[in-house]
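Quick note —
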Amino acid sequence: MSPERRKAEADAFRQLAEHIDQVMWLLDIKTETILYASPGSAIIWGVSPEELYADPRVWLMHVHPEDRGRAEGAIRGHEYRDDEYRVIWEEGSERIVRMRVFPIKGKDGRVERLAGVVEDITGSRQMADALKSREAELRQAQKLEAVGQLAGGVAHDFNNLLTVMMGYSEFVLETMKKGAEHHAEIDEIRKATYRAAALTQRLLAFSRKQVVLPRLVDLNEITQGLQMMVRRLLPDDIEIVFRPGKKIGVVLADPGQMEQVLMNLAVNARDAMEGGGRLEFSTSLHESRSAKQIGAITIPSGRWVVLSATDTGHGISPDMLARIFEPFFTTKEAGKGTGLGLATIHGIAKQSGGHVAVESEVGRGTTFSIFLPWREGAAEASVRVDGPKKLRGTETILLTEDQLEVREIARRTLAANGYQVVEASGPAEAMWLSQKHHGTIHLLLSDIVMQQMNGFELADRLIPLHPEMKLMFMSGYTEQAVPDHHRTIPFLAKPFSPTDLLRKVRSALDG
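Predicted structure written out below.
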């Protein structure tokens, strides 16, 4: 190669090295001197090329002390290395750099020089860590979704079974005198079904398949309405404070579910403060034009109404925080918790379009914050419906239920109390019977989750045929949102007792 060609290539290399952000350096092993260092050294290490020429080891002083030995070994090993180090800048900020070292051999095969390329990979590393975190969140969400699907399906089938158990136990008790043989045992069976029903409701809330009847509600009104109940729930050595925010607006949510959230938060705080402490409930309006990171949760931009519960309990360790919303996961002793309280809160928040953020430190307490979308408008007044004075009737009821055992319980209960029951095993049969029936159908009592079409769709098809017919729905769970035009329709949650059924039916007919 001619001297002119060699000089041209050297100039081209120098121009390249001086116009990129990476550091390029060349070290003579024998003399331990820097033969060349590109201007990028000032960007990466905060050390100019002139300083490197004067002291080839000055850059090591900017490497994090824990990484310094490894970095020094890279230039003494006389071999190819590809490592990452932390670099501390003068203002104290920490960066991550990647340094690749290439050995250059002489004619005799021995390493004479080392060439290095150093680049700042802080940005790419942060992006990789963020992506890894998102992937972990996605895997967690997928796991919870899978468990939720299973829990919802189990709860649905279990609610049907509990309805049958409630019904027949009540039928048997009606034929027995109090104090008769086995009366107490059968009554215990009946009570156990109610306890099991409460458990299935928690499963459904977690899996977001609980039937929701939302309306515009003021969280201040709900928290104030539950003050007395919360105080009875917590021991005297726990101070309870309610701090309602001003002008927080309203949210679209099921009032019963919001009460369930408050009670679960109170129970969770009570268990975290066995030696007493302080629990504060507060509400506020959160407005932000950008997303906000709270704990492990990112709250999107927008306007949110926030319900917070802060306790002075023992706190939650970081490894536990990642799992606290998993169903059946609990830090309590065996037999002292179902592990569904926080899972229920998480499910209700998600079903209402919100988020749950947790901030906790071991020994310093925990804050749970439920973010719900702010809605325009005023809170809708709750309608109090007094129970019917009588349970019997003579009206005609079109009963649509695809579970034979549940349908039989409902039919037997209604018929025994004077009602005329037209029994359908599904939507298709219900439509056929409604067309065949010549008299008045006073009430459609339909399950929501059925094959062919759901109960809401069935009602929409039957109303034009029987405009005088009233509606009532029942279900143990639903995957469909309640249509706006059916939000005020009476609803009977499964599992239900024969008495529950009669009261609801009578109220629907009289209403």
